[in-house]
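Lab intake sheet, docking and co-folding queue.

SAMPLE TYPE: protein with bound small molecule
LIGAND NAME: PQ2
LIGAND FORMAT: SMILES
REQUESTED OUTPUT: full 3D complex as structure tokens
PRIORITY: normal
SUBMITTED BY: R.K., bench team

The fields below were copied directly from the construct record.
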Amino acid sequence: MNFLPISINIEDETILIIGGGKVAIHKIESLERFTHRIKIIAKEVVPEIRQRSFIEIVEKEYEPGDLDGHLLVYAATNDSVLNSRIREDGKARRSIVNVVDKPANCDFVSPAIYKQDNMTVAVSSNGENVFAAIHWRNQIRDLAQSNQIGTSKTKKIFRQEFQAASQKS
Ligand SMILES: C[C@@]1(CC(=O)O)C2=NC(=C\c3[nH]c(c(CCC(=O)O)c3CC(=O)O)Cc3[nH]c(c(CC(=O)O)c3CCC(=O)O)/C=C3\N/C(=C\2)[C@@H](CCC(=O)O)[C@]3(C)CC(=O)O)/[C@H]1CCC(=O)O
Ligand SMILES: NC(=O)c1ccc[n+]([C@@H]2O[C@H](COP(=O)([O-])OP(=O)(O)OC[C@H]3O[C@@H](n4cnc5c(N)ncnc54)[C@H](O)[C@@H]3O)[C@@H](O)[C@H]2O)c1
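RESULT FIELD (auto-filled):
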């Protein structure tokens, strides 16, 4: 597998998660730092999701038409066959689908994220080793939090340092 890291503008998107259990909570914890436009479709939804009033919740069985109008979709049910079918349904609609139990069958995978204001680090192992991705993210987070990478400098100072370094090389 070879996944391309990009940063997507999701201002006009509602992100759809099919499934409302433990893994859906994980996805929400990552997403809510970037957007509150999140919709859950699931037969049953756990209280940790229900208590977030910004989430639109629809309790029902999944149907392919649920994907209509959604660019980003997480297939996060506990039914592996269904999760793969959701990706197939997404193809016809140009939705890109994260299949939480099958990295090789994903249009995108969720990186391990560290976010500090406008700075974001997203680490992925190409879906091969999520624990390595989490470990790298934690190391980078610790560096940033100990201010070893100058997180409090302004754009102007970073530009001057960048230009000075370019002239040297
Ligand atoms: C980084 C993070 C982002 C997020 O989810 O937002 C994320 N998983 C997180 C947590 C986490 N995942 C797992 C545990 C242990 C649970 C336990 O065992 O108790 C924990 C820790 C926990 O639960 O605390 C297990 C697990 N995960 C996957 C499988 C299936 C497999 O690998 O086959 C299995 C079973 C593996 C096994 O047991 O062998 C699959 C995927 N998980 C990915 C991302 C994608 C790869 C990213 C990459 O390219 O590296 C990928 C491929 C698909 C996807 O989901 O996108 C998030 C960090 C949250 C944070 O700390 O910020
Ligand atoms: N990617 C990851 O980070 C990661 C981590 C751990 C586990 N997993 C895998 O993720 C999967 C989901 O695990 P979980 O712990 O969240 O499961 P869970 O049992 O907590 O939740 C499953 C959810 O899917 C819903 N659902 C099932 N069938 C449905 C249908 N037909 N229509 C609508 N909703 C439906 C249920 O109502 C429930 O809300 C498992 O297969 C697990 O192996 C992935």
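REVIEWER NOTE: The chain is about 35% helix and 20% strand.
SIGN-OFF: pending second check by T.M.
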